[in-house]
Amino acid sequence: MAESLLTSQLKGERLELAASGSWTASHARELETLVDSVAGEASKAKNVSIDMTGVREFDTFGAWLLERLTRAWTSAGRQPKIVGLPQHDRGLLEEMHGVNREPSRAPARENRIVGALASVGQAGAGLGRDLMLFADMLGAVGVATTRVLVRPREFRFTSTVNQLDRVAWQAVPIILLITFLIGGIIAQQGIFHFRKFGAELYAVDLVGILILREIGVLIVAIMVAGRSGSSYTAELGSMKMREEIDALRTMGFDPVEVLILPRILVLIIALPVLTFLGCMAALYGGGLVAWLYGGMSPDIYISRLTEAISLTHFKVGMLKAPFMGLVIGIVACAEGLQVKGSAESLGLKTTASVVKSIFLVIVLDGLFAIFFASIGM
Amino acid sequence: MPQEPVIKVRDLVVGFGDQIVLDHLTLDVRGGEILGVVGASGSGKSVLLRTVIGLLPKRHGSIEVLGVDLEKANEAERRALERRWGILFQQGALFSSLTVRENVQFPMRENLDLSPRLMDEMALAKLEMVGLSRDDANKFPAELSGGMTKRVALARALALDPEIVFLDEPTSGLDPISAGDFDELIRTLQQTLGLTVFMVTHDLESLYTACDRVAVLADGKVVADGTIEDMLKCEHPWVKTYFQGKRGGMLVDRRMSA
Question: Which residues of B touch A29 (CB under 8 A)?
Answer without folding.
Answer: 112-115, 118
